[in-house]
Amino acid sequence: MDALTRKVLLAHETKPSTIVEKGKRIIRFYGVQILAALFVIYLVYAATTLGINPKRIAQGVSQGKEFIGRLFPPDFITRWEDIRHDMLESLEMAVLASILGIVLSLPLGLLGARNLMPPIITWPIRFFISFARAFNPIIIGIIFVKAVGFGPLAGILTLSVASIGFIGKLFIEAIEEISMKQVEAVRASGASFTSIIRYGVMPQVSARFIGFSMYQFDSNLRNSTTLGIVGAGGIGGTLFAAYQRFDYQIVSAIVLIIIALIITDEYVSERVRRIFQ
Amino acid sequence: MSNNLYSEWKHYSGPKRAMKTVFYAIVLAVALVSFRNVEIIPEFLADTPTQLADLFKRMWPLDLKFLVHYVFPAILETLHIATLGTVATLMLTFPLAILASRNIVPNTGIRYIMKSIFVSSRSVNSLIWALFYVAIFGPGSLAGVLAIMSRSIGFVGKLLSEAIEESSSKQIEAVVSVGASPLSVFLKGFWPQVRPSFISIALLRWDINIRETAVLGIVGAGGIGLLMESAIDTFHWPGVAAILLAIFAIVLLAEFLVTKLRKMVI
For residue B256, with 0-12 CB atoms within 10 Å meaning exposed, 13-18 middle and 19 or more buried, which class applies? Predict the structure, then answer.
């Protein structure tokens, strides 16, 4: 509310009689400003409890210069065999997990859609999907590493669960938005359940499903580069090992390769999306 | 395409169908190569369900004392880090996004610099950013806030500059035509059009940041991840279960809040 509106409104109001009315009026007129002030107070409080202050930042900045100096020049050669092997492993993990996740999301999405299935089936499916989505892949990765040991298997399972959480949700939403007229038309011709899905439901959602899948592959590729930090395979393992040995020149080389990989992937997936439009 | 009554209707044109087939073939080939190359031990795969069941059995019952005394403060810290990181991102990215918008800055050079900042920010996972900041500032929440900020700049910058570029030029020309200063042009011409997207982007990123902050502690950047790491290292599985429950609760709460706030503000 700007100053002029406030002035006009105030001129038309009768004088508030009680304290409660006065308070109500203050909230009505200055609500946004009060909220903003409270938010700023919260931010200052949060920064203070976390021990963030200008002195620490200044200290870090001077150390930062030295740190950045130690990142250069990037060293691609010393650990090249490890980097090459783990980078490929990251890529393989992303590919396999995306396919596994997509294949599993299809039936889960159909079972979770409330316009196709009764609540007794949709509820557990929807709960599982939101559970899979709630946790960061790193956390799921830790659990799988404890369950199946170090290596890419844990990473593939992790990323598959993450894919189900994301694609499953979007796929359910897409199916719930479809027009039921086509489904009824197919059903009226006496089609079996599979034919209803094949000719009534899938044509309406398949284009969007491809879009979700491409997006999920991008996301899986990004995550496959860090899962190694918790031992779930991929380039993250080599990166973290180099970091812990203070081999910062190797760290910077790996990060540069990751950036190149992600940019290439963004370019490719943009192209693929155009094919399916 | 033939007009035969019995021919199946096809959605895509001929060349596009061919490209799609090629794409599927490539995916299949890559998948097969990946499957052959990746080192999976079959015994471990077969053993997975038993191991998972065993793990979940050991998590039960939850450690409620641990939940109240340790998990709750750590969750609060996680929230603080995510919020501070998001606010810092918004303040820093706003001018950068303006510089990256074609309809405000016609200079391609500046725009490419901004875009490359956004791309490199997005390409590096927040966990890797956290590694850098822990090396510079030492372990703690400050590294977490900076990591969240560094990762979010690219995301917010890209979406925000796209929102600015999509705003209609009519409204802006109207404001310019009455001789408004550049600041007024931005505040009265662009801002009313960009505001809904800005709020959506901010809320969406806050929601994502809460999930990401939950793991930063694993590399020492503060929050609940640190507690989780130590609980796992000491095999305190009922405690791990309490942490997982708390993260699940906070993520659901954030999602609920974001939906409510978006409806309220937009």
Answer: exposed
Beta-carbon separation of A60 and B119 below 8 A = no
pLDDT at B89 over 90: yes
The DSSP annotation for A148-163 comes to H-SSHHHHHHHHHHHH
- List Cβ neighbours of A211 (8 Å cut-off, separation of 6 or more): A273, A276
pLDDT band at B188 (very low <50, low <70, confident <90, very high): confident
With bands split at pLDDT 50, 70 and 90, how would you rate the model's confidence at B1? Answer: very low
Contact A153, B45 (CB under 8 A): yes
Q: Which domains does chain B have, with CATH numbers?
A: 62-265 (1.10.3720.10)
Chain B residues with CB under 8 Å of A62 CB are none
**Joined tokens for residue A2:** 């700007």
Q: Are the beta carbons of A122 and A158 closer than 8 angstroms?
A: no
Residues of B in contact with A226 (CB under 8 A): 125, 127-128
Q: Are residues A48 and A90 in the same domain?
A: no
pLDDT given at position B51? 80
Give me the domain span that covers residue A173.
80-276
CA distance A105 to B93: 36
Residue A37 lies in a domain: yes
Asked if B31 and A95 come within 8 Å (Cβ–Cβ), the reply is yes
- pLDDT at A210 (0 to 100): 80
Highest mean pLDDT among A10-24, A133-147, B9-23, B52-66: A133-147
Structure tokens at A156: 């593939």
A107 and A195, same domain (yes or no):
yes
pLDDT tens digit sequence for B136-182: 888 888 899 999 999 999 999 999 998 888 888 888 888 888 888 88
Give the predicted TM-score (pTM) of the model: 0.82
In single-letter form, the type of residue at position A238 comes to: T
* C-alpha–C-alpha distance, residues B136 and B129, integer Å: 11
Distance CA B157, CA B97 (A): 5
**CB–CB contact A134 B211 (8 Å):** yes
Amino acid at A134: A
A258 contacts chain B (CB < 8 A) = yes
H helix runs in chain B, sequence order: 14-37, 42-59, 64-66, 72-99, 108-123, 126-137, 141-166, 169-177, 182-184, 191-216, 224-233, 237-265
CA triple B218-B151-B148, angle to 5 deg: 50
For position B83, what pLDDT does the model report?
Answer: 92
pLDDT digits (tens, 9 = 90+) for B206-216: 998 998 898 89
